[in-house]
Design goal:
alpha+beta; five-stranded antiparallel β-sheet; 4 helices; 7 strands; globular
Length: 154
Amino acid sequence: MSAAPAAGRTAIHALVARARAGDPRVIAALPSGWAVFGERQFVYGYVLLLPDPVVPDVNSLGAQARGQFLLDMTLIGDALLAVTGALRINYAIFGNLEPALHAHIVPRYADEPPALRTQHPWAYDWETAELFDPRSYGDLAAALRGELARRGAR
């Protein structure tokens, strides 16, 4: 996450501001926030869910907002499964490095390198991973938007 945050803000705040401004990484606006492609595509279709407005963590949300965030997170996973051929989806919410709620949604594939196939996503070398390119991911973004709409996401 290379977005430069303003003083007292996190990179998540900066990413949400960019999403609101039309960042090409945006896949869709969802009821709880923004589905955006990860800056580094260490696996094809790595997505983040960013809450809007930004909150410190999932426990800071009321029951309805918390449920919506988690529903949106899993709807993104369902859409990724439907359009990428992934075997499964890994979900992660940490907030240790960036102390603001955001979810990592990581499709996992049968053709991943054997040494990484059963490892957690952070075992990949993110520094050498492919950078997101809007031209290369336009078709996937459109397919994900269609699948999210089909599944009832607004």
